Amino acid sequence: MTAWLSVVSADHVARGVGLGIAQIGHGSRSGLARLHSGEVLVYYSPRQTLGGVPLQAFTAIGRVADDEIWQAEDEGGFRPWRRRVDYDTGAGAVPLADVKADLELTSAPNWGYRLRRGLVELTAGDVAVIAAAMGAPTMATTESGR
């Protein structure tokens, strides 16, 4: 199972969860094209809003629903690329501090630098830790659509 971590502010994550979509990399297509149906997508939100109050939490988890990527019409002529994700709406946000010691992701001295890419692959062990902490253990143990 492949799983991904996307770095997005919590307010944008909440909007995506509400719409049942993923939109990463400020609406670019390239990150979404790396995802495939059945893969897990976890959001890490360093801040509540873009440039706002620090949050440092895992804020949503879901499974990529299909392989279709489309371009949406948004406010002000913005045309972001999106794809459908089936989110576990029962999953709760988990502060990074609660699981940091148990993650491979955070074991390197400069681990935060990797997050600057906006989308990084997660190990199966890290998905299991994050999913369990969020109350969504089935996200780490089952795969659908592939």
Task: Give a short summary of the structure.
26% of the residues lie in helices and 28% in strands.
User: What is the total tally of β strands?
Assistant: 8
Q: Based on Cα principal axes, name the global outline.
A: globular
List segments where confidence is low: pLDDT < 50 over at least 5 consecutive residues.
none
The count of helical stretches stands at 6
Percent helix, as a range, is 25-40%
The secondary-structure element order is EHEHEEEEEHHEHH
Q: Calculate the terminal CA-CA distance, rounded to whole Å.
A: 9 Å
Question: How much strand content do the residues show?
Answer: 25-35%
User: What is the makeup of the main sheet?
Assistant: 8 strands, mixed
What do you see in this structure?
It is a single chain. With 146 residues, the chain is of the alpha+beta class. It has a single domain, classed as ph1033 like domains (ph1033 like fold, Roll), CATH 3.10.590. Helix content is 26%, strand content 28%. The chain has helices at residues 10-19, 30-34, 96-99, 111-114, 124-134, 138-141; strands at 3-7, 21-22, 40-47, 54-64, 70-71, 81-87, 94-95, 119-122. Strands 1, 2, 3, 4, 5, 6, 7 and 8 form an 8-stranded mixed beta sheet that branches. A hairpin with a 6-residue loop joins strand 3 (40-47) and strand 4 (54-64). The longest helix has 11 residues, at 124-134. It is globular and about 45 Å long. The model has no long low-confidence stretch (mean pLDDT 92).
